[in-house]
Design goal:
Layout: E1 30-35, E2 40-41, E3 44-45, E4 51-53, H1 56-63, E5 82-87, E6 96-99, E7 102-108, H2 116-125, E8 131-137, H3 160-169, E9 178-180, H4 189-206, E10 210-213, H5 226-236, E11 245-249, E12 252-254, H6 272-279, H7 287-297, H8 306-316, H9 318-331, E13 333-334, H10 337-350, E14 360-361, E15 365-367, H11 374-381, E16 391-396, E17 400-404, H12 419-436, H13 446-465, H14 474-477, E18 478-481, H15 490-494, E19 501-504
Parallel strand pairs: 1-8, 1-9, 9-10, 10-11, 11-16
Antiparallel strand pairs: 2-3, 4-8, 5-7, 6-7, 12-13, 12-15, 14-17, 16-17, 18-19
């Protein structure tokens, strides 16, 4: 020590008074994988590049078309196409409208249906913050024909390989804690199952994130046969990594897209003659609507914008207004995963990762395609064979639409049954793992062991104080062990291995609250 003091004078030495501390890792950073309008910013491409954003404005700047200058009609970021298909009888499921006594099913061109853009909006409406976006491509070409009203939507432009490659890119990212593929339900049933199994396998391999799944058929469930969709889902999720996945049912009807977002360009692939046959039929002529439609057909010769013509047509034809209302409702039927990610973010920020994201409303949800009963949810919540629990989204009178479940797909496991338990363990494991990297190559001796134990104990103590661990005393809530003949042998030390054992008592949600009442005999005074 004295060797460095060679010149007379006063020297100051700072003594380290505090040990290293553990910085808690973020717990609610979803990674959305899917298709976007575009993916470039300032000349740089962001296709197949995990890009972190902090707001919906960031998403629009990088992954959406630039806004058109006024007074031009705003550019549509999402432009689905719908058809009105005449039916002999009232459709059993899906959206329909009655025009002049005839039934018309409202069905999309499946190749124009995408969920990513609206799911990001739902995420931020529900309190979302930081997120990763992996754009695997832009929108594909429409098929220019409607799907069958009884079929499930399968978008030929949504490719399994695209989504799997997008998920694989997240292997290099440690920050995301949730994987979400809003457009996974637009795959075929078999491809959807393959994708879900890939996601669960990667989650279990990395142990840094969970996957939030939507269920095919949740957009227009049959009141009685909806259980078939659940059974198909359970049969296609495999058996690995189930504690790292959770699913929500059904889809939610939202108000994400507004009336001005849908117009005549979204109908019949832009064929105005098909629309004119409905709005100006011989049995119910509408000369004003006919004049507007004529202007639309020659729009290049008109000074009016699409928005202005659409407004005029809405005022001129009640039938057109009813069609737009029905189409808008169909477009706003969205998978819940984006909203769930927002709810989880809000719950984590307000309370902590140990709080179950349930008994909570969904901002933007206005109705449900099926009102599940308690008997229905019993089938979803508990499955004796596979144990794959499905979290219900339910409507309660006076309370509104609530998330009414907090289980992972590993519903038969007493250890990993609940989402907050799995996510809390991920949070604790990753926080401790990242902090202890500072001790790699430090002497494997009692001094280092003591520092590591104190660092982890202080961290767990702070989590216990916040309510993240249960126990009347810290020693009831956790333990940290590290030492020779305690967690390591001489052989371990000779092989340069330091072993730390950590035990925690994680808070579990009160899923079942039971009151016991009994009569008490009156007593004489």
């Amino acid at each position: 020590m004295t060797a460095k003091y060679k010149i007379p004078g006063v020297y100051v030495e700072e003594v380290k008074a505090f040990h290293n501390s553990i910085l808690p890792v973020p717990t609610a950073i979803p990674a959305f994988v899917g298709y976007t309008p575009q993916a470039s910013f300032e000349g740089k491409s962001y296709y197949n590049v995990p890009k972190k954003i902090t707001s919906f404005a960031d998403f629009k700047a990088i992954f959406c078309y630039p806004d058109a200058p006024e007074p031009a009609t705003p550019i549509k970021q999402y432009n689905p196409e719908y058809y009105l298909v005449k039916q002999k009888h009232k459709p059993n499921k899906g959206s329909y409208i009655t025009i002049a006594g005839e039934f018309y099913a409202i069905v999309p061109d499946p190749n124009t249906i995408y969920y990513m853009y609206n799911s990001i909006q739902l995420f931020y409406e529900n309190g979302g913050g930081d997120a990763y976006i992996v754009s695997v491509g832009t929108y594909g070409s429409p098929s220019k024909k409607p799907m069958h009203p009884e079929e499930k939507i399968v978008n030929a432009n949504v490719k399994l390989d695209d989504l799997q490659n997008g998920i694989a890119l997240l292997k290099k990212e440690q920050e995301p804690t949730m994987y979400i593929c809003p457009e996974a339900t637009l795959l075929s049933v078999a491809n959807n199952g393959t994708l879900m199994q890939s996601m669960l396998f990667q989650n279990s391999e990395m142990q840094t994130a969970i996957s939030v799944f939507d269920i095919i058929g949740g957009d227009k469930p049959d009141p009685i046969l909806f259980t078939e969709d659940i059974e198909v889902f359970r049969n296609n999720t495999g058996a690995k990594g189930l504690s790292f996945g959770c699913a929500y049912y059904p889809f939610i009807a939202t108000a994400t897209m507004l009336q001005q977002d849908i117009d005549f360009t979204n109908l019949f692939g832009g064929d105005i003659t098909c629309l004119e046959a409905l709005l100006n039929s011989p049995s119910a002529p509408n000369e004003i609507a006919a004049e507007i439609l004529k202007t639309i057909q020659n729009i290049n010769e008109s000074d009016l914008t699409i928005a202005q013509l659409n407004t005029a047509l809405l005022a001129a034809s009640n039938t057109y207004a009813a069609i737009i209302k029905k189409v808008l409702a169909a477009v706003n039927m969205l998978p819940p995963s984006g909203a769930i990610a927002g709810v989880i973010t809000t719950t984590d920020n307000q309370v902590g990762v140990w709080k179950a994201p349930a008994n909570t409303s969904i901002v933007g949800a206005v109705s449900l395609p099926i009102n599940l009963t308690s008997a229905n949810q019993e089938y979803l919540n508990v499955d004796a064979v596979s144990g794959k629990s499905i979290n219900a989204i339910r409507l309660f009178n006076g309370l509104g639409i609530l998330i009414w479940g907090a289980r992972t797909l590993d519903g038969n496991s007493n250890e990993w049954r609940y989402i907050p338990v799995r996510r809390t363990l991920i949070f604790l494991e990753q926080s401790c793992t990242l902090a202890t990297k500072a001790f790699v190559f430090e002497p494997n001796n009692s001094s280092t062991w003591l520092v590591v134990k104190e660092m982890i104990s202080n961290f767990l103590y702070s989590i216990w104080r916040q309510g993240g661990l249960q126990g009347a005393k810290p020693e009831d809530a956790f333990f940290v062990r590290c030492g020779l003949n305690e967690t390591m042998t001489n052989h371990d030390i000779l092989n340069h291995i330091m072993i730390v054992n950590v035990g925690v008592s994680v808070v579990r949600p009160a899923e079942f609250i039971i009151f016991s009442f009994q009569q008490k005999m009156a007593q004489s005074s």
